Amino acid sequence: MADLDETIAELAERGIQAGDVQQGGQKARFAAVHDPDGNRVTLLESPVTS
Fold first, then answer.
1. Three-class SS of residue 7?
2. Which tops the pLDDT comparison, 48 or 21?
3. Is 16 or 48 the better-scoring residue by pLDDT?
4. Considering the entire predicted model, what is its pTM?
5. Distances (CA, A) of 37 to 16, 24, 34, 47
6. pLDDT single digits (tens) 1-39
7. CB 10 within 8 A of CB 29
8. Rounded to an integer, what distance in angstroms lies between the CA atom of residue 37 and that of residue 50?
């Protein structure tokens, strides 16, 4: 995923809320969302672009 913040913003516009963005080591960030069926999906940005 190229830009985690941009993706989270796009999802929010569609009514899908992501959890807090967390640091995953020095070069990755991630956040979780849930699909309409309740399945957890983790979004990953690696390497961090910002």
1. helix
2. 21
3. 16
4. 0.79
5. 12, 26, 8, 30
6. 569 999 999 999 998 999 999 998 888 999 999 988 999
7. no
8. 32
Exposure b/e, 2-34, CB count within 10 A at least 16 = b: eebeebbeeeeeeeeebeeeeeeeeeebbbebe
For residue 31, the model assigns a pLDDT of: 97
| Six token digits for residue 29 | 């960030």
* CA nearest neighbour of 29 among 44, 12, 7: 44
Residue 36: count of CB within 10 angstroms of its CB: 6
Element (H, E) at 45: strand 40-45
